[in-house]
Specification:
binds zinc ion; 81 residues; alpha+beta; 3 strands
């Protein structure tokens, strides 16, 4: 099952979590539920992944909707299990 990367808006902690439908993710560092879901590409998990994910999240915030669906499609296409 896929896990998702999150970034906490309250404390900026980044974390990865397996989220089932209906679950509300909470930050493991401060327990805040105010977190951003990031669409990272598992194959590109390097030291720069977090920065890339943050940039993607910022772009997503500016262009909610279509781009978000594109990112989701890319993620699912690259996650072949
Ligand atoms: Zn937090």
């Amino acid at each position: 099952m896929p896990t998702f990367d999150f970034s906490c808006r309250a404390c900026a902690h980044g974390f990865e979590l397996l989220v089932r439908s209906g679950d509300v993710p909470h930050c493991p560092a401060c327990a805040s539920a105010d977190v951003d879901k990031l669409f990272s590409v598992p194959l590109l998990k390097t030291s720069g992944t977090h920065d890339r994910a943050m940039q993607a999240a910022k772009r997503r915030d500016k262009a909610q909707g279509t781009e978000r669906m594109v990112e989701q499609a890319k993620y699912e296409a690259s996650h072949d299990d």
